[in-house]
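Revision sheet: structure tokens.
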Amino acid sequence: MKRLLTFALLLLLGVAAFAQATDNKKDQAAAKEVEALERQRFEAQVKKDYPLLEKLFADDLVYTHANGKQNNKTEYLQSIRDGKSVYDKIEVQALNVRAYNDGKTAVVNGTIIITQPNKPDGTPNVAHLKYVVVQVKDAKKGWQVVLWQSQKQPEAKS
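Predicted:
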């Protein structure tokens, strides 16, 4: 009886370890996929690739700018079209992706440098931001950003 219980316990532990390893593989694969999508999204924002941005932003997007202003998906994309949100370059400084829920949810945090058109006096317009993104994988639409929040950071001194 003791051997049977020991065997059952070992079997149960093995199944649990296998299930966790499988989840970790799904989460790891999802994290890599989301990291690539983050970089694609930044590029799409610079290039004003509206079809890709429409696909990558969820319909219920909450986009909170570093100044505290919030937009939904329609408002944010319109701000790019209207020239209120202009990006000459978005440079990724750091990017960390953690996936959860069998690779169906991802939390991203990182730091970026956004270069925008020069200020009226000709000085460079550069913003250093820390940001957090939540992405959810929809069965039909794929990965979509549901939340963006950023905070301005002081420029790093050399």
